[in-house]
Amino acid sequence: MKIQDIQNEVVREVVSEQDIDNKLGEIAKLIEKDYEGKDLLLVGVLKGAVMCMADLSRHLSRHLEMDWMAVSTYGHGTTSTGVVRILKDLDTDIENRHVLIVEDILDSGLTLSWLKNNLSTRGPASVEIFTLLRKPDALKIHVEPKYVGFDIPNEFVIGYGLDYAEKYRNLRSIATLHPDVYTQKS
Ligand code: PRP
Q1: Residue 33: which domain range?
Q2: Is the preceding omega at residue 140 within 30 degrees of 0, hence cis?
Q3: CATH number of the domain to which 74 belongs
């Protein structure tokens, strides 16, 4: 889905499809260099990171493995609660593995802080974070991602994996949603 398909529902595009692709290409080059000679396990955080995982991994010109975790913090609202639950754990034993967490957004930071700590207790060789988006003004806890795509303002954004009430994940770019959408509950 493109932004033109839902013109009445969005206020503005925050990151374009082309800018996302260019940035993923740049970051993939850094990852290739940083992990040269090391195995690499990408851990995607469902469901939001699906698009990032698909596109970042295809920019990487090397072997890697993928696994997935599902955690819950948001429910169907637009602000973070800080309550983290594991809905689906890894299938992989990460002992002695180089783990790169792949996330769509670092908002309050509570999810990624918790996740990094949790994975660090499992004896990995390393645990680092890639996040496509970061909201510096929304951070409630210190989290240091190794790779950040874009710093964005503290506004609720949808698209490229990010949802509102499970919709808009298939939007090709990242956008802010019109407030009317929040009030028109189906
Ligand atoms: C979103 C996002 C991150 C988290 C970031 O996931 O994908 O995992 O919130 O927020 P935080 O930095 O404030 O903790 P969400 O819980 O909406 O689940 P989803 O990926 O399934 O949409």
Answers
A1: 17-154
A2: no
A3: 3.40.50.2020
Question: Which atom, in ligand 1's list, is nearest to the CA of 162?
Answer: 22
Query: Cβ < 6 Å from ligand 1: which residues?
Result: 45-48, 72-74, 80, 103-112, 163
pTM: 0.93
d(CA 169, CA 34): 30
- Tell me what percent of the residues of the chain surpass a pLDDT of 90: 86
How many domains does the chain fold into? 1
Given 67, 104, 107, 163, which residue is catalytic? Answer: 107
Cα 121 to Cα 82: distance, rounded to the nearest angstrom: 20
Dump pLDDT digits (tens) for 107-136: 989 899 999 999 999 999 999 999 999 999
Q: Tell me if 122 is assigned to some domain.
A: yes
Instruction: Judge whether 87 lies within some domain.
Output: yes
From the CA of 110, how far away is ligand 1's center (Å)? Answer: 9
Whether 185 maps to a domain, the answer reads: no
Catalytic status, residue 55: no
Give the pLDDT mean for 93-97: 98
